[in-house]
Amino acid sequence: MDAILLQILNGLDKGSAYALIALGLTLIFGTLGVVNFAHGALFMIGAFCAVTLQRILNLSFETVDETQTDFLGNPLKVKTPYVEAWFGPEFGGSIIDWAVPLAILFAIPVMIGVGYVMERGLIKHFYKRPHADQILVTFGLAIVLQEVIKYFYGANPIQTPAPDALNGVMNLGAIIGMDIIYPVWRVVYFFFAVLIVGGIFSFLQFTTFGMVVRAGMADRETVGLLGINIDRRFTIMFGIAAAVAGLAGVMYTPINSPNYHMGMDFLVLSFVVVVVGGMGSLPGAVLAGFLLGILESFASMNEIKSLIPGIDQIIIYVVAIIILLTRPRGLMGRKGVMED
């Protein structure tokens, strides 16, 4: 039972990343009708926002410490971060330690800006083009962004640790008399994903802006005839979707060290999640993300892999085939979406 619960936790952890990326993908497809293959690159850019802030906070200057000497007796040069010099060693050190959570504040405007430029500068010209054209141009954009990141940050993964207070483990099973040791940050990531998903659904459900967007998703022409600038609202939604992907990347950095190809690693799986959940269905994307994350986690167990070697690499695609054969629109797909 301990092992089963542990695999469920692992699945929820990985499913959180799938759900957040798929949610952003579905927001873009549902509002603009664009199949955005550059969405994984937005996840990657968000992760490197955390890397960038960490480097900024660690900028330092050298001072000579007369109390310390090297083996030749010369005074040592000590590097002191500017943040510690400005705010004191204790508070400044805490700021550096909490670089990843603080990167959320840094990433939100950056990702909204990136999304706005991407939509206004390129994607708007492909609204009425076939989905194949959209896939090709956004996939090309993803490769360009990937190579830009590689040029500036290098090809090697970059360690981006969680705050010390959240970098340990906790016994999640103590409440129910079981021994389930699990990393604290992974639990934080799951609750962060739930918070973001709940926030997006609440925004769309309970705000006037969100209700207009949902109406535009259902009947764009009618909303436009009412004198509402639905295109501007959809552009804002593209920025919000980019921010969701970016925040998912920021918080994932302590789990998986950022590298230039991490966007592509998640992109294909996230599109499978979107298709399984149902194209254009926000609840379907979230449900499929967590479901496939749990299935992938169970398939990675040694007992399962000994029975079916390599099943952990293909389980998501096998499940996708089965679901699409039985429910061609996905779990919660809407009629008429991509069926022309």
From TrEMBL:
Protein localization: Cell membrane
Main location (coarse class): membrane
Transmembrane segments: 15-35, 42-61, 95-114, 189-213, 233-254, 266-295, 307-325
MF annotations from Gene Ontology: transmembrane transporter activity
Record key words, sorted: Amino-acid transport, Cell membrane, Membrane, Transmembrane, Transmembrane helix, Transport
GO cellular component terms listed in the entry, alphabetical order: plasma membrane
Membrane topology listed for this record: Multi-pass membrane protein
GO BP term (any one): amino acid transport
Domain of life: Bacteria
Pfam families for this protein: BPD_transp_2
Family: Belongs to the binding-protein-dependent transport system permease family. LivHM subfamily.
Annotated protein name in UniProt: ABC transporter permease
Source species of the chain: Leisingera methylohalidivorans DSM 14336
